[in-house]
Design brief:
Elements: H1 3-14, H2 19-26, H3 30-38, H4 45-55, H5 59-63, H6 83-88, H7 93-116
Helix pairs in contact: 2-3
Length: about 120
């Protein structure tokens, strides 16, 4: 599977975002997003940039050139950085990865619960 397709689907799932919601955010049709996911169509580079921006990840991550979602995430102004963000400075990459995995787990649990209700 193409890494772009895998990452796009993964990001949609993580954020509980529909193809329609993403399409509206980036100014394309829902059918276009569907075709990206099915591998029937490749997005233009400007569209890749809009998708990356919508998810807060780098283009390199989205295309599979990097496993770091946003290398610029740690560059924040004093106004943006909260106490919790400062705690991240003391966490290893592995710690942050585990936290991300736990967040995915919690989202999946919520999604399963909604299906039951």
């Amino acid at each position: 599977m193409d890494m772009f397709i895998k990452r796009l689907q993964e990001l949609l799932d993580e954020r509980d975002m529909t193809q329609r919601e993403l399409a509206e955010r980036i100014g394309v049709t829902e059918v276009t997003i569907s075709r990206y996911i099915k591998g029937e169509r490749k997005p233009r580079i400007d569209t890749v940039g809009k998708i990356a921006e919508a998810f807060g990840v780098s283009i390199d991550y989205l295309l599979g050139y990097s496993n770091i979602r946003n290398p610029y995430n740690n560059v924040k102004s004093d106004n943006q950085q909260s106490k919790n963000d400062k705690d991240d400075e003391f966490m290893s990459e592995e710690d942050l990865y585990i936290i991300e995995q736990f967040k995915k787990f919690l989202k999946q649990q919520r999604k399963m619960k909604r299906k039951k209700d």
